[in-house]
Every structure is written in C-alpha cells, then in structure tokens.
# Entry
Amino acid sequence: MERALSRIMTAAVAVLAQGFPGCVLAVGGFGLSQLSPGSDLDICLLRPPRLPAEDSGRWVQSIVYPLWDSGMQVDYSVRTLAETLELAAQDPKVLAGLLSARPIGPDPAGLFPELRQGVRRILTSAARRTFVQWIAETSPSGYACIEPDLKNSPGGLRHWHHLGWLAAAFPGREGARFLDLGVLAPDQVEALCAAAQTIRQVRCALHCTTQRRHDVFSAELQDAVAHRLGTSRPALSQRLEEAMARIRLARCAMVREVLGRIERKRRPPDRRCDGIRHTPGGLGFAEDPGAHPHLVLRLIETAAHTGIPPNFSAQGALLRLSARQAAELTPHLAVWLHDILHAPHGEAAFATLLDLGLLRVLFPELAPSLSVVPLDGWHRHPVGWHSLRCAMLLAQPQELLHAAPWLETLPTAPKDHLPLVWAGLLHDMGKPHPRHEVRGSILARRLLTRLGVAKADIATTTFLIAEHLTLFQVATQRDLNDPATIHAVAHKVQTPERLAALARLAVADAMATGPAAWNTWRSLLVEELCAKTARALQGRPLRAPSRDNLPQDFLREIPEPARERISSSDLRRMAELFARQRSTPQILHTLAWSVHDQDPRVWKCAVMAPDQPALFATLAGCFAIKGADILSAEIFTTREGTAMDLFVVRLPETDAAYFWPAFTEEARTSLADPHGLATRIAARRKSPLRRPSLPGPKPQVRLDAEKATLVVRASDRPGRLFDITWELALHGVNVQAAKIATHGDHIHDIFFLQQASHASWRLSSTLQPLLAAILRRLQTE
Amino acid sequence: MKKIEFIIRPFKLDEVKEALTAAGVHGMTITEVKGFGRQRGHKEIYRGAEYQVDFVAKVKIEVVCEDAITPAVVEAARAAAITGQVGDGKIFVLPVDDAMRIRTGETGEAAI
# Structure
C-alpha cells in the first residue's frame, strides 16, 4: 500500500509540476516512498536563483493548492539550492529531510545532483558531529509501551529513519544506505527489514481504521487493526514489540558506532579486558561467548557499570545464546542480577536484556509473563518493562522517595533491599493468571530456590509478592476509619519492617504502572493506611491529632507526647504563645482561655518559660497562693529547653480579668525566688482564716525506678501539687513530664522524673529519703 | 431531569453504585477527587516529621435521572453512603435542561 500510494502521489505531483523550471523534491516519508494513508506530503521546491519571486508564488499555487484542495496535508518549502544547503548546514532537521529527498519530474537545471554533492560536503564537515549528536539526543531510548506511537516511540519509524541518516553520516561511507554499510550480519539485516515492515504495515492498517493520521496504537483500536491484518491482538502486540525492540537496539548501537568512529582520533584504540572488548561501536566479545557463556554476564555487567551498550556483533552473539548455555550460568545469576540493578547504568543494561529477549533465556520461568500486555486501562508498559521499572525504583529509591516522601516517615525502613528488589522484579510473574499475586509467589519461590537465594529472603520475597496488591486494595475499598480494617492489615504484615517493605513495593508498583494507578488521590489513601497500620503495630492510637495550620517552627520544637496528648485547638493557642515566647525568650509568658464547659470558673492556661529547677513546683505554688485549684496539668520541655506547661484550673471567685495578670506577675517574681514562695505558702497554711480540710484516705506514693515514674494518690488540698513538686525539687529531681488529674476530692498524679545529675536510678541513694519526705508532706495538714 | 452529584467516601463506592442501580439509575460517571468540607482536611505527624494532608480523598459520582425517581435515588445513595461520622460527604441535585445520546441523536429522558 505504501508503494502504491507513493506512486500515485508522485505521479500527481509530477503532473502538477510540469514546466517548473527548478526541481520538485519529495522529502521525508514521501521521499522514502513510505507513505501511509494519513501521511503528510513533504515537498521542497528547489527554484532557480533567478526565478522572480512572483513566479515562485504562482508555481506554489499551481502545485500545492490542488493538493490542499484534494484534502491532502502538504508541508512545502521554496528555496534556492544555496539557501537550502546553507540551512542544512545549520539545521540538522533540514539536513535529515534532504537525506531522504528524491526528485519528482524533470530537473532541467540539474539542481538535484548538485544538492546531493552539497549534502555530502556537509556530511564530511564539522557539521556531521552536530548532526549525529542531534540524532542521538532527539529521541532518547525509553520503555516499550502498551500503546506505542508507531512513529515517535522508541523503536518506532523515526528510529528506523535514524538508522538511514546515521548511515549517510558514516565516516568514510558518506551518503551510503544503512543496509549496504556492512556493519550487520545478513540475518540481522533481514530481521531489521522485517521489523520495519511490520511497523509500517501496522501504521497503514491504523490509518485505514481511523481514516486519519493517527500514529498511537491505542488499546481501543488494537483489535480492529489486528482484525484488518488477519491476526489476533496479542499476537500482533508481541510482533510489534519485538519489531520495535530490534530497531531500538540497532539504533542504539548505530549511534554509538558512528559517534565512536567520528571521535576515533580522540579515543584510545580498542581495549580488551576479561574477555570483553571496548570498540567504537560499544562493547564486544574478545572471545567466543558460545564457548565461554560467563562472558555474556560479564558483558551486561560491564554495560551496567560503564553505560556502554553492546555493539552490533555482540548483539548478534547474545541473540544466539542457547538454553543449555544459559543453564550453565544459573549459580551466578542471583548475584549478577542484583549487581546490575544497583549499577549506575543498570536500567539501560537491563533494558538491553529485555530487548534482546535474553531475560527469557536466562530466566525461562519469566517467559510467559514478560510479553503480557495488560489492557486494563492502568498499565502503560508490558509486564516485562513494568517489572523492570518497579525493580529499578526499589533498587535505586531516590525517585520513589521523592514521589512518596511519607515512605521515609514510616517507623522502620526495610532492613534489606534484596528481597524487596526481587519482589519488584517478580511481582507480576504470575500474570496472566487471574490471581497472579498468589500464582506469582509460588513461581517466585521455585525460581529463587533454583537460583540458590537464602531461605529467609525467599520467604520475605514471596510474602511481598503475595500481598503486593493488599495496601492499595484496602486503601481504596475499605473504611480506613474502622479500626478493624487497620488491625487486619497490621495482622497481615506482622512487623513494621514488613509494612515498610510492602509500602515501598506497592508504591513502586503503582508508579511503574502509570498515572492511573499512581496519583495523589491514591497516594493519599495508601499513605493514611500505612500511617495508621504503623501506629497499630506500635500499639499507638491510630490517628494522630489534627495539626491544622500550626507553624513549622512550633511543630519542630514540641515533643511528640505533646502532639499526641494536646488537642488541636489547644495546640494552636500554644503555638500563639510560642511565638510570643520566641520574641522575649528570657521571661515567663502565659496565655489563658476559658474552657466554658459547665463551670465558667474552669480555665486553661498555657505557660512557657526557660526551664529551670523547681519551675513546675513554682507554678503550682503560684496557683495555690492565688487560690486556684489545679485540676490537671500536662508539662513538657521543648527541644530548645523551654518549659511548656498546660494547666486546667478552677479559679477562685474573682474576676478572671484580674486573676491572670496577677498570676503572671506572681509567677515571674517567684521564679526569681522560689524559696520565698515556699515560705509564703507555709505562712498561708497557718492563717486562722484558712478553711479546715476534712480528713482523707491514707496517701499512696509509688516510685517505679525502672520507668522513673512517681505515682501519687491522695486527698486534694490547696497547694498539694506544690507540696509534691517542691519536695522533688529539693531532692534534685526534675519533673520531665507529668499528668495531673483531680477526681472529686482526690488527686491522681503521675510524674515522669529525671535526676538533675542524670545519675542512674538504681544507684541513686535519694529514693527512700524522697519517698519518705513526700509521704510526710502529704500526711501533714 | 436532574443531575445528581454524590461526593462519598472511596470505600463506599461499590455500595452506592449498587444502590443507584437498584434505584433505577442506568449509567454514572465516577471520578477520584480530593477536597474538604466541614471535615477540613488534616495534617499528620509521624516520627517528628510533619507533612501536610490538606485534602481528603473522596469519590464523586455523577448521574442524570428522571425527576420522578430523583428523591428515591438520593435517598438510596444516602442510605448506602452513610457511616454517621464526619466526612460522609455531600449530595448535590442540579436541574438539567436537556440531554442527547451522541450515537442516535435521541434527546430528553430517552437519552439518559
């Protein structure tokens, strides 16, 4: 069809161009006689230099307008020979177009032979290197796609054209055709031509099916195109993938070959090392790999570390590796594969394995799944390429952690990457089985056992494969607010390490699948699931309190228990106080607000001040001396050493507007002289105006030396908290944190203690005297 | 005709879908969305590292149905979507002037 179309269009243009004094050139696909039904017609009108401009315009009208009127897409240019060559020397794209140019109709001025000579001159000049570099960089190599662009995807027709352009720029053979160059063995030439023919056939059928220029082999069109070509979709997809792989490989080697030859003078001569030869065209074998199969592994390993691909002859030799020779390599495969995936150019080297079909030979267990094309709307790449991408994301996780930074916030990072990378590579090997995760774990166990992988690694790998869908399935289909959901996942993963590994695998799998599977929506859900599961595994509450709009510096400073225990609204007020405290850090600051619950006298008060011995006792004493009852208190110390306390107090029957300034003043004064405060409290107790207290139960004081906690249960009295904390301060014990609670007339206080000298509790001689002193105070009315 | 938009919790999708089908809805469009209402969104802190989760993941279902069944459709979806907790979502009902099935050119209720 391509030739017939090209002939028809050539004849049509020839008729329209009759009498043109210059030369009409077909360029691009038209020049190569490779027109598909939806292709553009690329035409260049080489005009004689003396043809007046208005005459050129008339010729354009007479040649191009009828083509436009007939519905053709025509791209044209009108230039003189000199203009064309000047532009070609500057613009590689123009030069590339001219390499495929052919004249249509007569050429009375003999412009075309001059053009060819001019192009040849450019290809022997310094512009050649720029041209080849442009080819190398225009379309970098990439992954095989399920819906490839037959023209522009890696291995598409554009890459096929690159081969021709590179041949024309081949040093010493300028202007040669690729197939005549002699760099390929005859069977490689034949296979490449067949590959290009396959792609062109599919493109023609695609254009006929869509009735327009549409080069993306979309999933929805694949059945119709396969039917038009008399085959099935899976068979056509596999044929197309193999064809594109061949062209990808050939282009890669050709770019290297031509660049290598251009730069030969600057490069050292061929080097040999351990049976591998470094040539301008890439890595080659210095010895026959048929006789020494281990050289196959060494060559790919060298490619992974150096970034140099195999040359044409090495590609041919690799394609000939037999199953028997591959079997000899089995004991080395596990270590070798691990090394490749972690090497700097491991991804490209592994892609070469896939393109050459070598992975099927080395790992026959993978063969059935590698070419599976999952047309599920999620996947962008066939299984083999998807698995490679997934394994690479896990082996070199920078991209993974950039896309999902929360993975690093999980409590434990995976200890060993080996099972994780294996799981990434093998997680879909059960496809196309409907329960591929189960089937895959069975197949993976067999493969890894054959390769001699350690049993513990096999167990972890197969667990990860069997559960690789779990996190996303649960995250998107189950209620994450239901503790049963979270505990079921926690039960399944068992340990934080396995959760971290499974989360990485799930995210890498989703990222490698495509944007439908990995987007912020799904990330949000799986992140929430992982965070809650991690908390469940640690025995913590499933949800951390909300942290809306809290300043970063405040969040950095407050200790984790404060975030856990203080409500979001209270934290916001404390953040406000924190900002004030930052401006004048040397003095004490307070912020109080009415809780307005049932009792209008109950207030909350946040206090921040530089931490110092007896600070908590002083604050408790200040509340006592002002007649306020402390109902509860949470005390913390920031990382910078600022005390950060939150009290719930019942005020005396005075106006709060007067109470709080007076309290703040009292606290600031007392911090300078805590002993004075203690004296005033003692004097107040002796006052005849003091209301007598009813006798309460016997106080209980329990000190846990292991946990460094002091638990006090006693009847409530004014200044009770001061009594305890003052005694602690006198014995050189700091209160690191405390939970103060009042239940009716009883207090239940827990203090988390730290000795000022940081001495071990076991060795401390202060414990018994401290306990006795506290009990004495509690029993004294 | 009315267009009804349901913003629901993701895990309720299957239940709501079944309820809508049972209530006589023939087709629907489903989109993964993020947002917040009174629930506000949230920020999480783990191991001292703070990161922001401004929006909450939801699923949006859009259906167009006849006026007559609209109340039943809304009620069926609500019954399926409810958990009783903050963040159950919203239902919006909008008037639709007309509809057309592209393939056949049918319009009005025949097109839905």
